[in-house]
Amino acid sequence: MSPSLQEAIPVILVLFLLSCGFVGVSADTPSEISISWIQKGDNYAAQGLYRDALGAYDSAIATDPYNSIAWNRKGVALMKTGYDAEAVKAFEKSIELDPYYSEAWNNKGDAYNHLGEYSNAIAAYERALAINQNDLYALVQKGINLQESGNPAGAMKVYEEVIRIAEREVRKHPNDARFDADLWTNKGDALAHLGRYFDALDAYETALKINPKHEGALKGKKEVEDILMQVRGTFLENSIVPPTIIGTEHTTQSVPLSPALSFCAVIAAVWMYCGIRKR
After folding, report:
1. CA 236, CA 226: separation in Å to the nearest integer?
2. How far apart are CA 121 and CA 142, in angstroms?
3. pLDDT tens digit sequence for 53-108
4. Of 121, 200, 190, 183, which is closest to residue 159 (Cα–Cα)?
5. Backbone phi and psi for residue 49, each to the nearest 5 degrees, phi listed first
6. 253: helix, coil or strand?
7. Coil, strand, or helix at residue 134?
8. Residue 84, Cβ neighbours under 10 Å: how many?
9. Helix (H, G, I), strand (E, B), or coil: what is residue 136?
10. How many Å separate Cα 54 from the centre of its chain?
11. What per-residue confidence (pLDDT) applies to 11?
């Protein structure tokens, strides 16, 4: 047998085995590898290991720089580690790759909110709402930033719109609403911002029945309960404090009520609160 034929036999054999399916070929594309890095990052983030998550998302981007999800996830990890300005840039890159990525628009709004740039935050949430006008998270956050920027009347209208949409969704799609913890949490946030604390508690508790670990519902419920405790203690000391905004890291006054309505609202809240606690 000639040397050239001897050299060709292994190649021919491999090709035969491949054609028969006896030998596998790695099909990992850059996109698939990037997705695996994103999954690793998500696992780290679920454990609160955001710096490790950031490293995984960077690896995903290095593998596939055109993955909008990887850029969005990187932005979230940057926010969680306190790098809000850098997070904005990551979200902008994600949106550049996918202009209809509403989650990235919302996250960009959150980052601007953390930076105190309320007008930019509102603009980002409005872009998310242009994609989905029923985006309750974007509506709630728009209301919060309107409140922060000194527009309580505008904020009140937005919160009322959130409640209207949430109640419509419950009527039209009751089965879906039974499993949508986000819907109930957003409704609870809007109710709390309007000072309807007991209705807000009901909404948060519904959300927690669906998902006992829902961060937004847990946070909102605790803050409402703290306010009711504060109101009860303040009432016993014969003085009244205004309600507090729920669901934001910035503490401000809520949509103002007239003195008479505020007094009646506090008395009603304390009476209901005391009655509930005695049961």
Report:
1. 16
2. 8
3. 999 999 999 999 999 999 999 999 999 999 999 999 999 999 999 999 999 999 99
4. 190
5. -95, 70
6. strand
7. coil
8. 18
9. helix
10. 18
11. 40
Residue pair 104/98 in contact (Cβ under 8 Å)? The answer is yes
Domains of the chain (ranges plus CATH)?
34-131 (1.25.40.10), 134-279 (1.25.40.10)
Contact 108, 85 (CB under 8 A): no
> Tokens at residue 105, please?
């628009």
**Is the Cα dihedral 139, 140, 146, 151 positive or negative?**
positive
Contact 111, 79 (CB under 8 A): yes
Q: For residue 269, which of 217, 195, 184 has the smallest C-alpha distance?
A: 195
H/E element, 201: helix 197-210
- If you ran DSSP here, which 8-state letter would residue 49 be given? -
CB 195 within 8 A of CB 156: no
| Token pair for 178 | 């039974």
Q: Which single residue is written with the structure tokens 């790695």?
A: 26
Residue spans of the chain under pLDDT 50: 2-19, 21-27, 238-267, 270-279
What are the beta bridge partners of residue 38?
none
